[in-house]
Amino acid sequence: MKFKDHLDKIGSFGAVFAAALAPCCFPLLGVIATSLGLGAAEQFAPQLQYAVQFFVLLAVAGSAMMYRVHRRSLPLILSVTGAALCFVHYYFHFSEPLIYGGFGLLVISGFWNTIERKKMESCMTPKLESTITCPECGHQQTELMPTDACQFFWDCPKCGVKLKPKEGDCCVFCSFGSIPCPPIQLDRGCCA
Fold this sequence. Notes:
By secondary structure, the protein is mainly alpha-helical. 55% of the residues lie in helices and 7% in strands. It is built from 7 helices and 4 strands; from the N terminus they run αααααββββαα. A hairpin with a 6-residue loop joins strand 3 (154-155) and strand 4. It starts with 6 loop residues before the first helix and ends in a 7-residue tail after the last helix. The mean pLDDT is 88.
């Protein structure tokens, strides 16, 4: 799992957390931080305002990256709308409903992107059986591919020749099989 797959969630929750640390500016969220004993962070309220804006931008960047992965536009639209509401609050019209609505849209977008990524991962199940064809005698045999290691050698049961991967291939399934090994199927590179 890659760090960039979580930027939208880090951004949205980071913005909410930074806002909670400044109870003078965000009284609804400030109650949470104060109850957790983090009320002393209020002295950094001006800096926390910049942190909130940074995390909002991080959430939008993460949502844009996730859009490139799953091509679902609604989470990205929610994220951009949430960010717009937050920046309208900061620079044009101070309104608590705007900023809280923006935070809500960013959090919803982060959850939605997580659901879409999980759906994609469940669809990307590699095939585990491959039929190896011996180049010497033409014998074919279906084998179960390992998922945690490469199979470098295969002995043909008919002619006894020991097959090894061709140059540039990671295993005998990639060289002589009907289906490449699971890491190659999932674009994760060679399993060696």
